Every structure is written in structure tokens, then in C-alpha cells.
Amino acid sequence: MTTVVGCDESFKDSKVSYTKGASEVVLGFCGSVLNANGTVTQLSENQKAALLTQIEKYATQGLRTICLAYAQMPNNYSPAEEPFENNLICAAILGIKDPVRDEVPSAVASCHKAGITVRMVTGDNILTAKKIAEECGIYRENDPDLIAIEGPVFRAMSPEERDKIIPKLRVMARSSPVDKYTLVTRLKEMGEVVAVTGDGTNDAPALKAANVGFAMGITGTEVSKEASDIILMDDNFSSIVKAVIWGRNVYDSIRKFLQFQLTVNIVAVTVAFIGALTNEHGESPLKPVQLLWVNLIMDSMAALALATEPPSPELLNRKPYGKDEGLITPQMWRNIIGQGIYQLIINFSVLYLGSAIFGVKNESVEHFTCIFNTFVLCQLFNEINCRKLGRELNVFAGILQNKIFNAIMVFTVAAQFLIITYGGEFAGTTPLSLNQWLTCALLGAGSLPVGFLTHS
What is the DSSP secondary-structure string of 224-243? Predict the structure, then answer.
């Protein structure tokens, strides 16, 4: 960057241009050097070589180097005739340390564990960039599977050459906004889901092109914020990890609810339909008011219970879901079908063998109450199973941390007891004995070992 300013009376009829920028670039524009005693002398090749060596030394220590230079020019100077950055006087070379935040290496490690590839695209010297990337855990010098490259080299490559190195690319130094945009668009074309961070106006095209753009809330420009999808209020990379955890938690909550809802629907519709067909009077074993209560459990209550699971660090222990992956996974279908089969067997057993199981008269109000109670308790125990989606066997892990889930379970059991005991003709129920309640609970609890088998 160059700024031209007018001078005071000691420099009559002249201006001074001040230039700062990448050390090796600005040094290339310098023809003279400002000495320690204040004199200006011609910049020899030996002096330039010594300065470049010092720049390299700073860079290998992770310092960002900046060269400061200036030049005096007449008032009638025209940049159209000769650029400002020509025959400059080198005033200083600075090494600036931008220390890596303590939490960044662990955040990068969490991203790697979660199957997220972290790449650093920067305008810094490649030696500085590699050193900082090593401190962050993004790059390792002697790893042949990790590549560091400079923007001009990347820019000069053919599309085929870029495609070969992009999977291994971890650091791009001395990059331009075009390089960053090219990398983002090509990664998307290769089928990757790309997230980009940026704070400058020049980052806007890449932020806009990415699947998810993260702008800096403190140091970011308004242009970058407008182009982004998410603004990091603390400008901290570890906040991205939190965003990943919350995003996965929300997605998993939707899947948990679907897994539960589909099981309830399959069982409720099948029991009501077949029960009505086989009943002498064509009556469904589940009455309208009972189905309304089941619908309340299935929709509002279950959604609230399963959607309020707090995010846990264990969510980072798996790879991301593919963007073309179905909302319902094969493992979820296994859980749904396994629970559906078990609940249908139990409910049909109670429907057709109620007198043997509960000692009640078939197709009596007491019989239908036992069916309704068994059906609801099966759903409550299966709701616990639906807290886990994959092959996690301990469905009770962390259950005490979700106070809303526990409150809803207690409320549902209490409401079920009141409906059974006091619902009467309105709900189509009659009070049950303690033994009948325990039998219903035992049949419903069978959903837990079935869930253990389907998750294993």
C-alpha cells in the first residue's frame, strides 16, 4: 500500500510517497537504504541478500514481516509516467508476532476428529504461513500428504494440476482474493461442502461462494458481514467448532423425532385398522380421545423432549453426514422396523389374548384400557431409545442432564394415570389395578432390550 503526502516548507515543491507491504516484494522496489546514522546509500546486492536472509529468518520464526519504504518526488510527478513504487528507499523491515490463541490448536484438532479438513489461505510469506500452520496443527513440514503452496504458483497451474494437489493442500501463502475464490469454487465442484472465514472486503467473493461463510464480528468489514451466513461475535476459531456441534445437534434432533414419530404412526395406524377389522362391532381398540392424546405425545411432547437434548463433544467423534445422504438412515430404519415389529406383537397379543394376560373380558372397556395403556407406555420407553441414533448402546447416557426431557416424561406418565383413572366414558377408559399397571409397564419396558438389539 502506498500513500503520497505533501511536505512542509523544508521540502518545498516536493511530495513523499510512503509504501508498506510484503517484505520481499517491497524490497524489490528499493534502490537505496536508510542507514542507522540517517544517511541514504545505494542498496547493494550484498545488502539486499542480507536483508532477504533476515526476512527468511523472521518468517521461519512465525513472524509476519513488513517492509517500510519511502521516496521523494516533485509536486508535478505523474504516476502515469512512472509508478510510485519505483526506486524506493528502504527504511525498515519489521517482524510482527501474531501469537496463536491458546484454544486454536485444540479447536483444529477437534475439526480433524470431526472429519473437517482445515486449510489456511493467507497473504503472508510462505515460511511464516507454514510456521503458523504448524503451531495450529494444520500443517506438518515432513508429511508428504500435506502441501503448502504460494498463490502465484497455484494460479499458474492448469485445472488438472490443481485438482491433483487440492485434496492435499493445507496452506496457500501470498494468495490473492482470486486464489481464495478459485479454491472455494473448485472444492464445491469436487463435491465438498465448504466453509470459509474472512474479515476483509476482498474476502466477500469467497464468503459468498462458500456453502457457509463466517465473517468476523469485531474486525470484519460490513461488506464481508453482508456476504457471510454467520458472524463470529468473538472472532474466535473455536466458535466454529461450537457452531459445528450445534448444527449436528439440531440435525440429529430432527432425526430423533422422525425416528420416534414414524414408529408411533406405523403401530397406531396398524393396530387401529386391523383391530377395527377384526372387532365384531367394527370398533377400533384405540378410541378417538385416546388417539388425540397419542397424537399429543407423538407431536408436541416428543418433539420438545427430543429436540432439547444438549449438544455434547461426542458429536465431533464422527464424520459429517454427506450432503446427498437421506434424512432417514439405514440404522434408523432398523430401529423403526425393529421397534414397530415388537410393539405390534405386544399390542396384538394384548388385543387377542387380553383375558389370558390381564384376566379381563375380551372387548370390554377394561380390555381396551389395557391396550391403550400398553401402547402409550411402549411409546414412552421407545422415546428413551430414540435419544440415540447410531450404534450407541447406552441410551441412558446423559439423560439426567436434559431436565426438559425428564419433566416431559414425568408429566406424560402422570397425565396417562389421570386419563386412565378418571377419563371414564369421555376417554373410554376405566381404572386399572396395580398388577395391571405393572404388567403394562413390563410389556412397554420390553422396548429397551429391543432397542439394545437394534442399536448393536
Answer: HHHH-SEEETT--THHHHHH
Nearby residues of 93 by Cβ (< 8 Å), 6 or more positions away:
23, 27, 51, 54, 55, 58, 65, 66, 67, 68
pLDDT score at 77: 63
Query: Which three cell numbers, joined as nine digits, stand for 178?
Result: 482470486
Side-chain half-sphere CA neighbours of 283 within 13 A: 13
> By C-alpha distance, which of 7, 18, 21 is closest to 88?
18
* d(C-alpha 41, C-alpha 31), whole Å: 9
Q: Average the pLDDT over each of 123-127, 182-186, 224-228, 281-285 and give the range with the smallest value.
A: 281-285
Residue 436, phi then psi, degrees to nearest 5: -65, -40
Beta bridge partners of 97: 63
Cβ atoms of 119 and 63 within 8 Å: the answer is no
pLDDT band, residue 11 (cuts 50/70/90): low
Q: Give the CA distances from residue 193 to residues 148, 184, 432, in Å, rounded to whole numbers and listed in that order.
A: 21, 9, 56
In angstroms, how far apart are the furthest CA atoms of the chain? 114
Q: What is the pTM of this model?
A: 0.79
- The mean per-residue pLDDT over the stretch 286-298 comes to 85
Task: Give the residues across from 14 on adjacent strands.
Answer: 74
CB 240 within 8 A of CB 232: yes
Give me the helix-helix angle, 330-352 and 447-455, nearest 10°: 150
Closest CA to 235 of 206, 199, 196: 199
* Banded model confidence at residue 397, pLDDT cuts 50, 70, 90: confident
Q: How far apart are CA 70 and CA 72, in angstroms?
A: 7
**Other beta carbons within 10 Å of 418:** 11
Q: How confident is the model at residue 394 (pLDDT cuts 50, 70, 90)?
A: confident
Q: Which long-range contacts (CB under 8 A, 24 or more apart) does 331-338 make?
A: 331/389, 331/390, 331/391, 332/255, 332/258, 332/259, 332/389, 334/454, 335/259, 335/263, 335/385, 335/386, 335/389, 335/451, 335/454, 335/455, 336/259, 336/262, 336/263, 336/266, 338/450, 338/451, 338/453, 338/454
Task: Show the beta-strand stretches assigned E in 161-308.
Answer: 169-173, 195-198, 212-216, 230-232
> Distance (Å, rounded) from C-alpha 198 to C-alpha 214?
7
The beta-carbon contacts of 251-255 under 8 Å, at least 24 apart in sequence, are 251/321, 252/309, 252/315, 252/389, 253/306, 253/307, 253/308, 253/309, 254/307, 254/327, 255/327, 255/328, 255/329, 255/332, 255/389
Name the residue with cell 542507514. 35
